[in-house]
Every structure is written in C-alpha cells, then in structure tokens.
Amino acid sequence: MSTYRLKNLLSPRSVALVGASARPVSVGRAVLENIHKAEFKGRFGLVNPRHAEIGGIAAVGSLDRLDFVPELVVITAPAREVPGIIDQAGRRGSAGALIVSAGLGHGPGSLHEAAIAAARKYGMRLIGPNCLGIMMPGVSLNASFAAHMPGAGNLALISQSGAIAAGMVDWAAQRGVGFSGIVTIGDQIDVDIADLLDHFAMDHKTRAILLYIEAIKDARKFMSAARAAARVKPVVVVKSGRMVQGAKAAATHTGALAGADAVYDAAFRRAGVLRVSDLRELFDCAETLGRVEPPAGKRLAILTNGGGIGVLAVDRLVDLGGIPASISAETRKRLDAVLPPTWSGANPVDIVGDADASRYAAALEVLLADPDNDAVLVLNVQTAIAPAADIAATVTTLVSKYREQQRRWAKPVLAAWVGADQNIIQALSGAGIPNYPTEDDAVRGFMHLVRHREVVEELSQVPPAMPDTFVPDARAARQIVAAAIADGRKWLDPVEIKHLLGAYDIAMVPTRAADDVEQAVAYAGEMFAQGVTVVLKIMSRDIVHKSDVGGVVLNLTTPGAVRAAATDILARARKLRPEARIEGVIVQAMVVKAKARELILGLADDPTFGTVVVFGRGGTAVEIINDKALALPPLDLQLARDLIGRTRVSRLLKAYRDVPAVAQDAVAMVLVKLAQMAADIPEIREFDINPLLADETGVTAVDARVAVGPPQRKFAGSGPANFAVRAYPSQWERRLALKDDWRIFVRPLRPEDEPTIHEFLRHVTAYDLRLRFFAPMKEFTHEFIARLTQLDYARAMAFIAFDEATNEMVGVVRLHSDSVYESGEYAILLRSDLKGRGLGWALMQLIIDYARSEGLKTISGDVLRENTTMLEMCRQLGFDVKPDSTEPDLCDVRLKL
Questions:
Q1: What pLDDT score was predicted for residue 245?
Q2: How confident is the model at residue 253 (pLDDT cuts 50, 70, 90)?
Q3: H or E element, residue 434
Q4: What's the rounded Cα separation, in Å, for the pair 287 and 445?
Q5: What whole-number distance in Å separates Cα of residue 54 and Cα of residue 510?
Q6: Residues in domain N-acetyltransferase (predicted)?
Q7: pLDDT tens track for 339-391
C-alpha cells in the first residue's frame, strides 16, 4: 500500500502481544522475553485466554479486556486464529499488526485472504506473516524472536529472510554498528519492500537502507519507491538466486540473453540501487555507509607500513574503477620533512615496517590536508616493533580532531588493521572510522561510497531530449502486428518486419519474400540490375534460427546460382524439419561492409519486470560470446549510451587503426526507437535485430525476428502495462484557449526541462514563492530542480504550460500520490506577471482530470491562510476548505473525486 500508518507500526506508543506461550521453547515465549528485555517505553499488554500470567507478566483473555488501545498488535497465535485477532484489533482501533505466525496459506478461501479482508475493514496495516519480526532500537522495541537486540544507529535493514536479519544483528554487535530499524517482511501480505523504502527514505534517523531480496512482487511499485529513496540516501541490495537461469525456451537471441538475474541487475541499476554480491559485501557496505559520508571524488590516498599490502590495495582500487591519488611535489616535500628517506615517495605512501604511532600521525596529517585526494585509507600490518593498538589509538584521536575542525567538509578516513584484536576494532569503530579485516574489503568499502555519489549524480542528470526529427508511424506499425495476430501467427514474416522497422525509421537491407524458386530468381534479378549481390534465407515461421538447417546462402551473383541455392535450401529444410511449414525463401540484398561491427539489439519479456531492452555483440555466436547488457525501458539517449557503454563491444564502436568510429549516437538512437516501439505496441513479445551492422555511415539491420501475441497486462495503472518504469505520457499533451484567446500548450514535465524551470522561476516574485513553498526561497539548486523534473510518472505527475506565441514557460502544476494510489497532494505555481488570466483554473482542472483518470479518490493540498486567491479558487472547484488542526497558518483543502 503506502507509508499510511507505518509509523504507528514501527514507532508505536503501545503494543499488545497475542499468542505468547507458557512453553519455554516457543516463538511466542521468545518474542515476549525480547519485548521485556528491550524495555519498551510505551504501554504493553499480554493477551492469552489460557494463562493469567506468563513469565511473571500478567495476561488478559482478549484484546477487549486491555485498558488501552494498542497501536501495534504482535501475533504469535496459531494461524487459524489470526483473522479473528485482526478483526478484534480493528474493532478496538489498532493501527496494524505484526504477524509472526506462519501457515496462513494462499489463494481463495485461505486464512491469508481472510486476514487481508479483516484488516481492510478497519484500514489496518499488516507486516508478515511468517517472519522473524521487527526490531526498532529507537523506541526500544524488539518484537522478534532473534537472539539479540541491535544497538541504535543509522542503518535500516529490510529483509525477506529472518535468518539474514538475525545474522546482520550478530555481525553488527561485533562491529559496533547500530540500526534505526530492522524489519523482516515474510510473505508480504500487505506491507512490502516498497512501502518500507518509502518509510525509511523519509526517516531522518536513517542514513542508509540495506535490502535482502529473494524476489520482487510488484516491480513497478518497487522501481518507483527505490528510485525515490536512492535520490536521498544510499540503498544497498543483496539478492539471492543469482545463478538461477532464465527461461531457456526463449526463441530469440535476446530472449535467451535476458536471464532473470541480469534483468534484476538492470532494474537495480535503473533505480539507483547499489547491488552487492554477498553478505560479506553487504556487511562492508553497512560498515562504510553507517559511518561516513560519500567523498567528493574517487581519488584514494593509501597510508601503509607494508609495501605489498599497499600495492594490493592499489590494484583492487584500479580494478573497481577508483583512482590512486597523485602525490604532488608540494605534498611530497611535506612528507619528506616528517618521514625517513626510505618512504616510498609515491602513493601508496609506504612509511616502512618500523613505523610507530608518531610516524603514522605525521604522514596522516599531511594526507588529510592534501587537496589532491578525496579520502584516505590507513593500513597496518602488525609488527613486533610498534604496538598496533597504540597506532590505532593515535589515528582515532587525530581523525576525531580533524573531523571536529572540518565538520561537513571532512574527507572519509577508512582503515584496515590486518589481524587486529577486538580491542583495536572497537577503538576504530568507536571513533566512527570504517574498518575492515583486509585491504580488499576496505577498498570495496570506499568504492561503495563513490558509487553512491555517482548514483545520486546520475539520478539528477538532465538527459538530452529525443530529436524532433523522429516521429514514428505507430499506427502503421500497430496494423502490421494486429494483422499477424488476427491471422493466428506468432511471428512476423520478413517483409512485415522490414515495414515495421521502417515505421520507426530503422534502416533494413532490401528484403523480398518469394513463394517459390522462380519468384526468388525474379526478385534476385531486380536486385542484380542495381548492381548488388543477394543472399537467400529459408522462410518458415517454425524455423527461427535459419543457420541450424543450412537455411542461409550468401554471395549469389547470377540467376542460375539463385535457382540452385533456392532449390537446395527448400529441399534441405523439408528433409531436416519435415514438420515445419515452409513458406518459401527470403531474397535480400547482401550488404558487404568490411569495417562494420556486428551488433545485436532487441526486446525480451521478463515475468517480473516486463519488457527489457538488450544490447550486445551480434553474430551467430551471440550466446557463446555473451557480451550483453540490459536496461528497462523507456530509454532516452543518455540511458541508451549507458547501456552500450556496459559492454565490451562498445570499445569497438570507437575508431581504431584504419577503422573509423561508428556514427555518433546511431546505435543509441536505434535502442531508443526500439524502446518506444515496445511502449507503442505491447503485443511485441520478443524482438531481435541480429546482426545490426554499424559503421561511420550509420546502421543497417540485416536480419530480425519478431514474436507477437495478445498483450499481457503485467502492471496496473495507466501507461504501458508491460513497463515496470512508466513511459512519458504523451497522451496528456493539450492545447488550451484561455481568456482573450490566449493560446497555451500544456504537456507532462520532462527531465530536460530543468533549464526552463530555472528561467521560469526568475519571473516569480519572492512573495509568490513563499506562498508556494511556505518559506523564503533564495536560490534553487541543480539538485532541487532535478528532483522536481525527474518524474517516474507512476506516483508523481507535473504539467508544464507554455505560451504558444513566445514558447515561454508560464506555469506548472504537480500531483504526488501515495503508492496506494488513493489520494494525491497537489501544488501549483504561475508566473507572477501572468496571473488572473485563467491559467491557474485551467491547470487545476487538468490535474483533477488526470487524478480521476488514474483512479484517485481524493486530491488534497496545504494552502497558507493568507493565500486567499487560491483558497477561493479551491472552493469554486469543489474543494472542502478547513483550518489545519496542527498548523494555524495553514488550511487543508480536499476534493473528493
């Protein structure tokens, strides 16, 4: 659903436990003892109809007998009793329940369905069932059967596995890492990963969010929540099942390449989530992100008393994309003054094996003051000369002093004491210095910080607009696909494919479909007359990979050669595949481009995330080479470039020796067009172009396969039902005529509108800005505006209005809904010099129409009492206007749809 009532469940003021057992070894007894040991500060009640007390704690027979209304009800009772307990809690006014119990089943008539129905009657939220529980150190609540209670800290953990959560608690206890909250979600009967991402993203006590995921149920909701959370804080995920293979029955190359884990990887990348491979790396992320802020760059200075371990650290740093910081002449001079002449003279700064605490301190001070690095990693290999504990104590004191002086501008300092005793680990951890058992772990920790900073930058980038020259003929393309489906076919024939590509301005070699040998000879003759060589291919909807039956013959230059080749191809296909329907042969002009690169581009269908775009190195050995990358549509040019850049073949697209570079963005544009095709025609199930020839003149498709079928509605709501990320909703573009024949063009906001927004705000007075933002606004940063323009169109929508005559922006209206998609909050801002001409009224009507089309039930907003113009307009539009009960300067306006 949403964050609705989640705060009541995760920071409750009162709790009741229903189902605690008197048996010493039971889940209910363990939960009771954990709640008691954690010393929950709010009111607590124990409910058990068979015992007057358990473990010295008095019990009542039912929730009705409690002398208070519990915000959170924790259920460990048998599964058959769960729906009734939820109904009883709802009648009393409880906000929600944590269902630790297992065995509710699934499907119609199950206890699972009954529990959901009971909760919905009262607007209750449910966590679980079949989960370890929740641990919320901030309110001293341990409603779980974990062995330990974590300390308070700034990491949130959301886990689909209770065992993983318990392991994280044990690890954190050893490292001095604390949590703002740990929630195990079990079967996600209601509260899911996306809901908790929304909650912890807005929780000021949470610095970073850790996820353990086995599978995602609602991909569109997850993508929206993860992208929103990753903009404001690091989100790190480890997903199990990486080696589980995708469906091998895929008929196209792109379908075979798009394995399930590769799609998850693409989804995490699109959402800005940092993916790690295992629990150890997740622990390293927690160690790093829980203690320090991301650096300004990726230049790392390494201070060590062992040359070998320093070199290993540099090797790993370069492997992971980091940069060994350079040592300037000035810094080298300063180091020379405090170090013996035997120091390395470069990065890593090896201060030699006999280095004591004072030498470490002297070198570290110089590196912390050096502007040519972004972070410092301190390594120590224990020796018999200088006690490692003394060095650690000196380093922690120096780093603490440095942080006090620099405050928010302090560089991250990381440490690795090889073979360190627990007291050294505790000293470093106590000083807030991320520390690791090896140099490899430390460098990975640093690169996690770097990657998060890069993610934030990527999420706030302004991608280039689609060239205006590209206007696809989507109607013609849909007719081609619809005709094939009406004919009962699952595959388009080659001529249909050529026309389909043509509708999206994707060049393909001249292609003709011949029913028999003589027609093939005739078509080939026409091509010979143009001075080209031809290639013949078997045409059969049942033979997808033509080369498997020898169904391709190249370099044909005479009618006789074509006649012989066509006869041979047809005979061989009928012999090897007697069950196949043979329609004839394809006659194509043979394109010979000696310096062209063979690529594969296409679309695949994933059961969780819907349509996926695939790119990689093409040719007949495409699966064996397996040089591919995936992305979730929709794409713009920047996303397409990123997709290409994640493959090895991308290097070949550049110039080398006597081979010119591929035409700029020619390949990226084809990827963008394919993504647009997938949005326009959800009936396309799989699509691959293999090979696509690319050179300095552009791109040409040589062969392609397109599988079609009735569209499958994977995701609810508007927008392409096959996209986990909603596409730009062009259907909401409008031309409006206002007072005095003022012509306005209105469209959904796009990422590239950031410069337009900046210019627009120059025409809004300080007074109007205060009415909109409830506070004086002196400046608008790139990050602030980028966050406004980076819409996912799933939970947030904004319409931007332009004067048609001048093409200047004149107003904007926004709507942000909760993920339940029941209510939305609006905001509107107009150019101050253009108010009073009907624009505000028109934009408000448009956003109301949009909300209705999305199925929202209410629109609400906060309006300053002094903003009498807006309040009067809201009344005229049918809004209910009431004073805000908590903010005397505000009015709450609400419209039921």
A1: 47
A2: very low
A3: none
A4: 8
A5: 83
A6: 744-897
A7: 999 999 999 999 999 999 999 999 999 999 999 999 999 999 988 888 999 99
What span, in angstroms and rounded, lies between the C-alpha atoms of 304 and 351?
Answer: 6
C-alpha to C-alpha distance for 575 and 551, rounded to whole angstroms: 12
pLDDT computed for residue 806 by the predictor: 94
- 8-state DSSP, 634: P
| Model confidence, pTM | 0.83
Scored b (16 or more CB within 10 A) or e, 199-216 reads bbbebebbbbbbbbbeeb
DSSP 639-684: HHHHHHHTSSGGGGGS-BTTBPPPPTTHHHHHHHHHHHHHHH-TTE
The owner of tokens 């044990």 is 170
Q: Which two tokens stand for residue 818?
A: 């909760």
Whether the Cβ atoms of residue 657 and residue 593 lie closer than 8 Å to each other: no
Supply the mean pLDDT for the chain.
89
Q: Which residue in the block uniquely carries the two structure tokens 């929206």? A: 224
**Beta-carbon count within 10 A of 764 CB:** 18
Task: For Cα atoms 805, 807, 808, give the angle at the middle one, nearest 5 degrees.
Answer: 115
Q: Which residue has the tokens 């979600």?
A: 185
Q: Is the dihedral of CA 865, 868, 870, 874 positive or negative?
A: positive
DSSP 477-540: HHHHHHHHHHTT-SB--HHHHHHHHHHTT--B--EEEESSHHHHHHHHHHHHTTT--EEEEEE-
Instruction: Describe the chain by its helix, strand, coil percentages, rounded to 5.
Output: 40, 25, 35
Residue-by-residue DSSP string for 684-747: EEEEEEEEEEEETTEEEE--EEEEE-SPP--S-SSS-TTBSSPPP-GGG-EEEE-GGG-EEEEE
Placement of tokens 């369905």 in the chain? 113
Q: Cα(first)–Cα(last) distance of the chain, in Å? A: 20
The CA-based dihedral angle spanning residues 541, 547, 551, 552, taken in that order and rounded to the nearest 10 degrees? 120
**How far is C-alpha 792 from the geometric centre of its chain's CA atoms?**
11
pLDDT of residue 616: 92
